[in-house]
Structures are given as structure tokens and as C-alpha cells.
Specification:
- The chain is an alpha/beta fold.
- It has a single domain, classed as Formyl transferase, N-terminal domain (Rossmann fold, 3-Layer(aba) Sandwich), CATH 3.40.50.
- It is 34% helix and 25% strand.
- It has six helices and ten strands, in the order E-H-E-H-E-H-E-H-E-H-E-E-H-E-E-E.
- The chain has a seven-stranded mixed sheet with strand order 3-2-1-4-5-6-7, with helices on both faces. Strands 8-9-10 form a three-stranded antiparallel sheet.
- Strand 4, helix 4 and strand 5 form a beta-alpha-beta unit.
- The longest helix is centred in the last third of the chain and has 24 residues.
- The radius of gyration is 16 Å and the shape is globular.
- The protein starts with a strand and ends with a strand.
- The structure holds 5-O-phosphono-beta-D-ribofuranosylamine.
- The site of 5-O-phosphono-beta-D-ribofuranosylamine has 14 residues, from helix 1, strand 5 and helix 6.
Length: 201
């Protein structure tokens, strides 16, 4: 399958996907970043993947930004759109267009801790466990149906950075695995539910 990956930062999840691409039957058509300084662009370049920078600060509205992102994605006619640390919120119209084809990774055990700064918020809330979720993207921010999660224990010695590192290790394993379910045709969004091998998750 052909995939487009959207990033905003370091791109370590992108790297995990690049490293596994052959094994998970994914051809990464291009990488799109809203941030020209994202290290993930270097990773994509090193892998010979075409890159596009679409700087959101150059647009007057969310709609105008989404329009250009959408035109760029559609040029590649991808089967799957992968949000791998992409830190912008899309308009509802944009999300509808890719309904059932767009996956996001979020560093928390959704529905807990939607939004930003999840690791610090988990520590502040004295949670005993934390983790990562992969979900289908719907119009609700971090609210689409969850497909899979991995958990890590929160240690008394943890700060946000040590916790983030352990969650990232799980992210890098989980995202390629879920993408592979999709490229194998085992995963779909049906009636607002994530379905794997014909069963609701
Ligand atoms: C990850 O924790 C991802 O879940 C979050 O942002 C971080 C991006 O990391 N949304 P990277 O850019 O993949 O290294």
C-alpha cells in the first residue's frame, strides 16, 4: 500500500516506520511536515523519500492550510495517511475526506490525557500506568476509535522525560504493527468502530 506520513518534529516514529516499511508492506510516497526544522525531514531525505514542507504560519486560516495539505496528499493517491507526531489540528472537512484511512499516534492511554503534555500530566495525576494509543482519526481531537494500546508502568523516579523515553520505545513497536494490520486489509473503520479481523476492538 501507498502511505503518506505527516510529521512536525523529531520523526522517531517515522524512522521506525521507514525501518519496517518492507516488512509491513508499506511504500512511503512522501513525508509532509508543517515545520521546516523538523529532524524527521532529514530522516526522510536519508531514506530517499520525497518531502514537502507546508508551514502553517504562512496561511491565514486552518481551511487554507488544510487545502494545501490535502492537495499535496491527493497527488500521491495514498491508501493510508499516517500522523506520526503531527502537531496540528485539522478541520472537520479535512478529516472527513480521509475517514477510515487516517491513523494517529497519541502518547497516552486514551481516553485519558487527550491533548498536549501528557507525560507531565500523568505524573502530576499520580497515575500508576501510562502508555500509547493508536486510533483512527475522526473530527474529535484524540477522540477517534482506539485500535491498540501499549502500557508502561510509571516509576516513582520518573520525570516527564524519562517517562516519554519509555513510552516512545513502545510507540516505535506499536505503530508499525498497527499499520501492518491496515496494509494487510485486516483493519477498518466501520460505523464509527475500529474493526480488526471482522471483530470490533
Ligand atoms: C510522540 O510521542 C507522538 O506520540 C507524539 O509526539 C511524539 C513525536 O515523536 N504525538 P517523533 O516525532 O515520532 O519522534
Amino acid at each position: 500500500m501507498r502511505g503518506v506520513v505527516l510529521i512536525s518534529g523529531s520523526g522517531s516514529n517515522l524512522q521506525a516506520i521507514i525501518d519496517q516499511a518492507d516488512n509491513i508492506d508499506l511504500n512511503i510516497s512522501c513525508v509532509i511536515s508543517n515545520n521546516a526544522d523538523a529532524y524527521g525531514l532529514t530522516r526522510a531525505n536519508n531514506a530517499g523519500i520525497p518531502c514537502h514542507v507546508i508551514d502553517h504560519t504562512q496561511f491565514d486560516s486552518r481551511e487554507a492550510f488544510d487545502q494545501v495539505v490535502s492537495e499535496t496528499i491527493n497527488r500521491y493517491n495514498p491508501d493510508i495517511i499516517i500522523l506520526a507526531g503531527f502537531m496540528r489540528i485539522f478541520t472537520e472537512a479535512f478529516v472527513q475526506q480521509y475517514c477510515g484511512k487516517m491513523l494517529n499516534i497519541h502518547p497516552s492511554l486514551l481516553p485519558k490525557f487527550q491533548g498536549l503534555n501528557t507525560h507531565q500530566r500523568v505524573i502530576d495525576a499520580n497515575e500508576k500506568e501510562h502508555g500509547v494509543s493508536i486510533h483512527f482519526v475522526t473530527a474529535e481531537l484524540d477522540g477517534g476509535p482506539v485500535i491498540a494500546q501499549s502500557r508502561v508502568a510509571v516509576l516513582p523516579s520518573d520525570d516527564a522525560s524519562s517517562l516519554a523515553k519509555r513510552v516512545l520505545i513502545e510507540e516505535h513497536k506499536l505503530f508499525p504493527k498497527v499499520i501492518h494490520w491496515f496494509t494487510q486489509g485486516r483493519l477498518e473503520l466501520n460505523n464509527g468502530k475500529a474493526i480488526l479481523d471482522g471483530k470490533a476492538l
